[in-house]
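Researcher: I'd like a candidate sequence for this fold, 229 residues long. If you have to choose between options at a position, lean toward the conservative one.
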């Protein structure tokens, strides 16, 4: 939700500067438009205003009051200190999900004009090379000719790096596939407080769900229960 709004604000700042900052209604339309968006959503004004409050709280956006309607703008250039080319790439990843370098170059035209795919790759490399990476390059999937890039932001903030996610996935996999006695020891507090076998089973099920989710993010198949991590 937050990244969709930020992506729209960055896009419209360059694509329609005469109408920027955006009113709540204009931001609703920008988020919900059916072109250049994946997935297509159906946000309402109340949700937009609530999320804008969250973005203002963490210093990623501002709302300008006065006139007939409040107007919303991003301040990512101040918060993150990124050049316009890198913000354009992030915005397109926010709006369209994982994409190839060629797709990003074409789709960023309304925000920033890259001279070549090499320039796009250089900007993506800079975003991936920070201490808290903004993007990561995914492994090529079956049926795909090129590797895709995806953003690593959740609720407007940088997410853990791919290496961290991978290590977490392996740790969770080891816990999920451990013998019952090991899992019981890892959940000593719930057991001592009278947790039932059903509760423990739910915890193991949740661990395995986390494994699937984290390995899906990495584009890998999760280990089967009982296998080595």
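Model: Candidate sequence:
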């Amino acid at each position: 939700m937050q990244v969709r709004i930020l992506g729209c604000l960055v896009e419209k700042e360059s694509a329609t500067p005469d109408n920027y900052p955006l009113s709540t209604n204009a931001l609703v339309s920008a988020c919900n438009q059916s072109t250049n968006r994946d997935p297509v959503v159906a946000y309402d004004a109340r949700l937009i205003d609530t999320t804008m409050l969250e973005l203002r709280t963490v210093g990623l956006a501002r709302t300008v009051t006065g006139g007939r309607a409040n107007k919303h703008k991003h301040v990512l250039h101040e918060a993150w200190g990124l050049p316009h080319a890198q913000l354009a790439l992030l915005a397109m990843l926010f709006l369209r999900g994982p994409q190839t370098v060629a797709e990003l170059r074409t789709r960023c035209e309304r925000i920033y004009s890259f001279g070549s795919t090499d320039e796009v790759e250089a900007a993506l490399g800079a975003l991936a090379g920070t201490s808290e990476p903004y993007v990561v390059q995914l492994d090529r999937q079956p049926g795909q000719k090129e590797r895709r890039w995806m953003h690593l932001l959740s609720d407007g903030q940088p997410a853990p790096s791919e290496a961290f996610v991978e290590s977490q996935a392996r740790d969770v996999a080891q816990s999920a596939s451990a013998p019952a006695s090991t899992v019981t020891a890892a959940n000593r507090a719930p057991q001592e407080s009278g947790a039932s076998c059903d509760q423990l089973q739910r915890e193991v099920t949740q661990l395995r769900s986390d494994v699937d989710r984290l390995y899906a993010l990495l584009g890998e198949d999760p280990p089967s229960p009982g296998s080595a991590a």
